[in-house]
Design a protein that fits this description.
The chain has 217 residues and is of the alpha/beta class. The chain has six helices and six strands; from the N terminus they run βββααββααααβ. It has a six-stranded mixed sheet, sandwiched between helices.
């Protein structure tokens, strides 16, 4: 399959901001890691998301947007679109060169929207992407959550994996800040190509399965 450009987005439960990254991949190997960026949330924006997450606890219909969820939904969509646009503008990349955008969304607000006229991929797992990113590396770490307390996390993982050694993503040549955004770009291409993204060793499915949702303009 042809190598294409894809952009991935990640906004995690820490609610600190949006990571964005571009990669070039055919859905099997990652040919090149491209530029990346970060858009932090302000205190007011974090407060809005926390309200939405709290209200979303009792949500049974994922399409429903009662109360503050509607405001937060519009905010998440707008900020993710603006983050992609900022990366393209900063790096002087024509949007027609990007085949798909992998959109992670937010836990209670996971509704991809093609504001930019892009093909959007959502609803995926990241294990297969980390495997591709680690190809050729002597040390292999499915490590996200960079902005958690790194020393505590390293110590805990180190204790559990003894006698194996533990290295950070940056120490083995990955970008710890953008690795999850890169993963969602990679998985979006696999979804677009109808390739498996869920495997017995990662989620317990009986056989490798395709998945994800594609939203076309």
């Amino acid at each position: 399959m042809a190598v294409v450009r894809a952009i991935g987005l990640m906004s995690g439960t820490s609610l600190d901001g949006v990571d964005v990254a571009l990669i070039e991949t055919d859905g099997e190997r990652i040919a090149r890691f491209g530029p990346s960026g970060y858009r932090p949330y302000s205190d007011a924006e974090q407060a809005l998301l926390r309200q939405a997450l709290a209200q979303g606890v009792g949500l049974t219909d994922r399409a429903a947007r009662p109360g503050v969820l509607a405001e937060a939904d519009a905010f998440v969509t707008r900020i993710h679109a603006e983050t992609v646009e900022a990366l393209l503008d900063t790096e002087h990349i024509d949007k027609s060169d990007v085949v798909i955008v992998g959109f992670h969304g937010q836990t209670a607000l996971h509704r991809p929207a093609a504001r930019r006229g892009d093909t959007i991929g959502a609803d995926r797992r990241v294990g297969r992407a980390h495997r591709a990113a680690s190809a050729g590396a002597a040390t292999r770490m499915d490590r996200g959550g960079r902005r958690r307390t790194q020393s505590d996390l390293d110590a805990d993982v180190g204790r559990r994996l003894q006698p194996a050694s533990v290295e950070t993503a940056d120490a083995v040549g990955w970008s710890s800040q953008s690795i999850e955004a890169q993963a969602f770009a990679y998985l979006a291409v696999r979804t677009l190509n109808g390739m498996p993204i869920t495997f017995p060793a990662t989620t317990g499915v009986a056989k490798p399965m395709p998945g994800g949702v594609i939203a076309r303009p």
